[in-house]
Amino acid sequence: xxxxxxxxxxxxxxxxxxxxxxxxxxxxxxxxxxxxxxxxxxxxxxxxxxxxxxxxxxxxxxxxxxxxxxxxxxxxxxxxxxxxxxxxxxxxxxxxxxxxxxxxxxxxxxxxxxxxxx
Amino acid sequence: xxxxxxxxxxxxxxxxxxxxxxxxxxxxxxxxxxxxxxxxxxxxxxxxxxxxxxxxxxxxxxxxxxxxxxxxxxxxxxxxxxxxxxxxxxxxxxxxxxxxxxxxxxxxxxxxxxxxxxxxxxxxxxxxxxxxxxxxxxxxxxxxxxxxxxxxxxxxxxxxxxxxxxxxxxxxxxxxxxxxxxxxxxxxxxxxxxxxxxxxxxxxxxxxxxxxxxxxxxxxxxxxxxxxxxxxxxxxxxxxxxxxxxxxxxxxxxxxxxxxxxxxxxxxxxxxxxxxxxxxxxxxxxxxxxxxxxxxxxxxx
Lengths: 118, 301
Prior knowledge:
- The complex is a heterodimer of chains A (118) and B (301).
- With 118 residues, chain A is mainly alpha-helical.
- Helices cover 51% and strands 5% of the residues of chain A.
- By secondary structure, chain B is mainly α.
- Chain B has 2 domains: 3-53, no CATH class; 63-297, no CATH class.
- Chain B has helices spanning 3-11, 15-34, 39-57, 67-95, 99-102, 109-134, 137-179, 182-188, 190-220, 225-259, 267-297.
- In chain B, helix 10 packs antiparallel against helix 11.
- Chains A and B meet through helix 2 and helix 3 of A and helix 2 and helix 3 of B.
């Protein structure tokens, strides 16, 4: 039976979308801006610009998906909220569904292996 | 990255955003460039992101704002598009001076119709935009009477300041131009040319400053649905005028170019007309995008 796709979440999108990368980075604990950049580059190989990073941080904070922790010198760490965790889970589930379908179709195990045109 | 560049980059953001994230962003920019990232790439990224933040604040982009904000933002985008096409039109007007003299009398028909159409569409567009401003005036007055002046005092003061500078510049330029011969006024004097260019930029900044005031007012006064529908219809009409201006300019350009190729022989005329046509096309697209955004937000389409 075909699996119904998960509903698209506010943050769902491509794996390289800055909001997804930030939420993923914060899933392991609070981080400030520069630490986020370094972590994202380390786990995803994506070099976010400072403007892109803070644009996404602003939107995520406005939507209550992340929140600032007490200020620490010139930096302010952020952490995932419960709503942020749910959005990240939904986005990852959506990506996993696509990965699973793609993998099955490539291997031909779901009977819909693409016929290669002559 | 030096301190001046950092300061300029942060000034690109709205004040409230700067107060919340400015210090952190500054820290990350400094650390990123110190770690070897290109200051140019970092600067471009920050400038682009600042433009997005400003556009979001105006409701022009982003889904995270209310329908009302999106409709207002769409109308504001159409207004900015109109200002851009006015600047393009002024450039075209200057570059096309004396074109009738370059085209043989019997061959001017199509070019004359096209040029007249550009002017007529510009006049219609101006009337439509003024009507759009006029219908909001009662709300603006009510806001000001209700103590809203403090919310717009800063931008209005800036706009008045650049208007005074533009007026003084215009007066000085007119006096100077009066004393110069036609040759020096038409490209023969590089200093005069530079001052005219500076004057053009000053006028553009003045228009932008007043449009920023109008954008701020549109958000402050809280346009109701009926007024927003009216503004959206007017934005659609203004966008139509922009499309007519763009097409008629292209027709005029092609017609004059084929009948009097020598008119566009000078580099500055060709450059100005090309820039004007591109800006007109971009303005029309932006106007259409703003109108569509407002219409979608109001369920009109």
